[in-house]
Amino acid sequence: MNQLKTKYRGVYKDSNGKFFYQVYLGMNENGKKLQIKSRKDQAGNYFHSAKEANLELIRVQRDFQLNSPKYTNKISYTEFVKKKYLPAYKINVENSTYLMKSNAFKIILNRFKLFELTQISVRDAESFRLWLLEDAGYSRDYAALVYGAFRKSLNYAVKLGYLTKNESMKTEAISKSKAHVKYWTKKQFENVITNIYIDDYFENMCFVILWTYYMTGIRVSEGLALRWSDIDFSNKKMDISHSLRRKSKGDFDIIPYTKTASGIRKISLDGDTLRILSNWKKRQQAHGLNQFIFSVTDRPIYRSTVLRIIQRYAKLAGVPLIQAKGLRHSHVSYLINEFNADVLVVSKRLGHSSPEITLKYYAHLWGVNDENIAKQLTGNINIQFSSTKKIKFNGNQSMNLSAKILPK
């Protein structure tokens, strides 16, 4: 039988002009679909309009949300997270990401351990959000991570049919703080490298690490995975297509992708960087090494080693202490302030999917590069005024002001 849609979702009109609703309520814990179709209301009366059918559909959904045993079996939020959400989440993310979110769910489950999944209301969600922000003692960024994980888990419950809607989506998300990452200027970087004694083998590696990150803007994990096969000395290119994932202290993987799909790229290398890398390659080979660039043992160094190198030389040079990712910011600042690089070039070099992403994180760096524009604006417009009054004003606008504002 043919059926026509109405303006109400889930309400239809058949070829005989009769109205009915059809609503999918999800699945019970045995995996059985819960779907209701009816031409009558709760009292057994046929629908005379699409509006009547829609009101009955809403009533049915409301009863379902109240966890009526007529429609569904109960499942606790804890059971849903442990048996459904986290196993699926673990498959789709890196192990480090999963471990970080697992810690967040310890907080979430402690809060909702006594709740049935369908009992979580918008008031419960808002109370949790405010607790994270005001009473839990977490940073705003960590509160945002925890609450975001909570909302996503309920979205997954909707996807699987355990819920018809995610009540937490009626609340505001917790936005992350907008803290700017510290970076080194060109002068500060020059001060740093003057404190490195490259005749020492290990310090030579320290110099290569700091220089490469500063001059290419690659991510920390991308640099840790760099091998000599990634450097094309003839075409002056660096191939960025891998990242390092460390599973334990002595165990690591070189994974064949970067943080994002657009992160796979080839970076053009300057002459100084090519010379520095070439000299370091020869020195490594003299020690029997030929695999990883950032290494003195032919095994990749730790992320923490990069930070310790930064800390050591920042202290010696008397420059601000920055994070490892601050070297990526430093590269962007260097390109903008020294060469007035446009956003498209910077975006491609960093491996961003679009210039908009680059501006999201680095727009403040372009702001310090407008001094030359201000100088060029000065005196560019010829300022001349009329020698006679040409407009008649009424009321207060006709006041005769003796003071004139003229350019000096």
UniProtKB/TrEMBL annotation:
Residue ranges the record marks as coiled coil: none
Domain Tyr recombinase per the UniProt entry, residue ranges: 179-375
PROSITE patterns (UniProt xref): TYR_RECOMBINASE (PS51898)
Protein's UniProt keywords contain DNA-binding: yes
Superkingdom to which the source organism belongs: Bacteria
Pfam families found in the cross-reference section: Phage_integrase
UniProt xrefs under InterPro entries: DNA_brk_join_enz, Integrase-like_cat_sf, Integrase_catalytic, Integrase_recombinase_N, Tyrosine_recombinase_XerCD
Entry keywords, A to Z: DNA recombination, DNA-binding
CDD domains (alphabetical): INT_ICEBs1_C_like (cd01189)
UniProt record similarity statement: Belongs to the 'phage' integrase family.
Name of the protein in its database record: Site-specific integrase
Organism whose genome encodes this protein: Companilactobacillus mishanensis
